[in-house]
Amino acid sequence: MKHVENSSRRACSNGPGNPSLMSAIRVHLLAAALAAAAAPALADTIYKYERGDGSVVYSDTPVRDARLVERFSVAQAMAQPPRPAAPEAQRPAAPAGDRVARLDAADAEVRAAQQAVDAAKTRLGQGSEPLPGERVGIGGGRSRLTQDYFARQQGLEEELVRANARLEAAYRRRNDAR
């Protein structure tokens, strides 16, 4: 995959005075699509360029005759369910030399948990737009969201709550290791 061009330059508005909302949604959707295409890679970089004529180009390689606007780091965290911490009485006493290894492991767990929170926030933000089939017409040119949309939103919010709980537990384990 070399690059994807967005030559659509008409203004979108999702309300009075909000022309940038649809543009921001398009950016996030495109970034998600590019991230999904790069799924086999554990980490990748996507670049946003603007050409002289105002068109926007997203690419994973440099684009000639274009100005670099933004760089996105796409990383996939290996999601693992949080492990319950052993009560203090059941924890074996570790030698003093093992303290550094425990702190390193605790720091790695905090970083992984933070990545999971960031990924959940991204999915929640990108998932706010209804998917095909999640909106039904009610007449007069109007529509409403279906229960599927609200169930998907609730699932995304619950994922974020679980990721935050995992992060808090990782912070507690790291503080205990200190």
Tell me what the structure shows.
It is a single chain. By secondary structure, the protein is an alpha+beta fold. It has 2 domains: 1-76, no CATH class; 77-178, no CATH class. Helices cover 43% and strands 20% of the residues. It has 3 helices and 6 strands, in the order E-H-E-E-E-H-E-E-H. It has helices spanning 20-37, 99-126, 147-177, and strands at residues 3-6, 43-51, 56-59, 66-75, 135-139, 142-145. The strands form 2 sheets. The protein has a 4-stranded antiparallel beta sheet with strand order 1-3-2-4, with helices on one face. A two-stranded antiparallel ribbon has the order 5-6. Strand 2 (43-51) and strand 3 (56-59) form a beta hairpin. Helix 2 (99-126) runs antiparallel to helix 3 (147-177). The longest helix is centred in the C-terminal third of the chain and has 31 residues, at 147-177. The radius of gyration is 22 Å and the shape is flat. Mean pLDDT is 75; it is low at 8-15.
